[in-house]
Amino acid sequence: MTSTTEPTEPLSVEQLSATTLLRFATAGSVDDGKSTLVGRLLHDSKSILTDQLEAVERVSASRGQDAPDLALLTDGLRAEREQGITIDVAYRYFATARRRFILADTPGHVQYTRNMVTGASTADLAVVLVDARNGVIEQTRRHAAVAALLRVPHVVLAVNKMDLVEYKESVFAAIAEEFTAYASELGVPEITAIPISALAGDNVVDASANMDWYGGPTVLEHLETVPVSHDLAHCHARLPVQYVIRPQTPEHPDYRGYAGQIAAGSFRVGESVTVLPSGRTSKVAGIDLLGKPVDIAWTPQSVTLLLEDDVDISRGDLLVPSKDAPPTTQDVEATVCHVADEPLTVGHRVLLKHGTRTVKAIVKDIPSRLTLDDLSLHPHPGRLVANDIGRVKIRTAEPLPLDAYADSRRTGAFILIDPADGTTLTAGMVGESFAAPQPVKDESDDDGWDF
User: Fold this and answer.
1) Distances in whole angstroms, Cα of residue 440 to Cα of each of 144, 176, 177, 365, 380
2) pLDDT digits (tens, 9 = 90+) for 240-284
């Protein structure tokens, strides 16, 4: 397979390893041009191959289109191609000389809000598209609210289809002002507005000659230069144990290591650590990284920690610095997005998976359901259905070490699982949301819990 354009110098392994990784998601209402933007970004940054472009051209020609429909590069499901909409989250991987990218093209329909939550849950940046002809609409506000709930550090407002409003600066300025005011109210920390035409390519990869009044970056320039300000290396250090390594070979008769991927922060040899939820303590005697000893390791490296003492540790335990240990609790309060077709109800028995640990749990209460249209709260709905976002109280069978989602998106998140068939029911974020409900008096603390 060959490139669609003249060949350029490929990135070396050293160049790729030196670049940073940015995860970003696109969102917006139906027909705002999300998939076209992604296709244009891939095409103009020379990140698609000849056979891929030829396949898109064939489908476009069969529809009577003169030019290739770049949206087809991400709309991979047959239903998506037939209806001209995005249903599932489409992930694409590409790289430039400055940065590597994982992008998630998420759906715009209201009934697929859960898919947007999936795509944006790990995103460092969200691109929210707005049709310049329609301005900020209800679905735009909904996607801004989801980005705020998920604590996405950076939001880009891409005002698309500027070619259809004669590239007028006044149209762009009015939309940017309205969206920025709304998103700032929700607590979005950084908002960047960019006027674009995804179909024509204006301000996507190359600067537009039609909008000389705009002096900011193109979409790709911003993606390449936005700082990864949420740097997990500076968060509370956390290592969920995935596997206990005991080779018991003549070469390593007494080796006992605790392997896993560092979820946040860094660990050093000689540092005092605590094992949660047991609370036992020890010191880091050694760190193995790719088979070699190192003095320090940080997120997202996969490492093996060796401790000075023989401590009872197994998969699901959490290693943390003793001076910075989170509290353990069996009572979890969180904001959740329900993603399953089966409703989540009060009294629902579930499995709660946090990091590498899975425990039994019961939904104790659903204090409120959030209406994203106007951010109002519907008190005590009794259940959450697919795409609902609400507050829940959960009682777990065993204590869990939980960080607030506002402090750590990795160790403050969990999922609820159906114990009968393993279906993921709900995605949860520990602690308060931007629209936390008023405290609700719980009158069922002693209602026959069996753990």
Assistant:
1) 27, 37, 36, 10, 9
2) 999 999 987 888 778 999 999 999 889 999 999 999 999 999 999
Contact at 8 Å (CB) between 318 and 357?
A: yes
How many helices (H) and strands (E) are present in the chain, helices listed first? 8, 25
* b (16+ CB within 10 A) / e for 240-261: bbeeeeeeeeeeeeeebbbbbe
d(CA 61, CA 75): 16
pLDDT for res 40: 81
Local structure of residue 41 (DSSP, 8 states): H
Residue-level pLDDT at 444: 40
Tokens (6 digits) for 65: 């289109």
Q: Give residue for tokens 């939550």.
A: 117
Structure tokens at 304: 């093996």
Cα separation, 430 vs 71, in Å, equals 36
Going along 402-441, which residue ranges are E strands?
A: 413-417, 424-430
Confidence at residue 254, expressed as pLDDT on a 0 to 100 scale? 83
Task: Give dist(CA 258, CA 241) in Å, integer.
Answer: 6
| Dihedral in degrees, nearest 10, Cα atoms 337, 340, 345, 351 | -90
CA distances for 360 relative to 356, 395, 399, 415, 423, angstroms: 14, 9, 11, 12, 14
pTM of the prediction?
A: 0.77
- Whether 60 has a pLDDT exceeding 70, the answer reads no
Nearest Cα neighbor of 425 from 367, 326, 353, 318 is: 353
Total Cβ atoms within 10 A of residue 313? 19
Q: Which pLDDT score, from 0 to 100, does residue 168 have?
A: 96
Note whether 286 and 269 are within 8 A (CB). yes
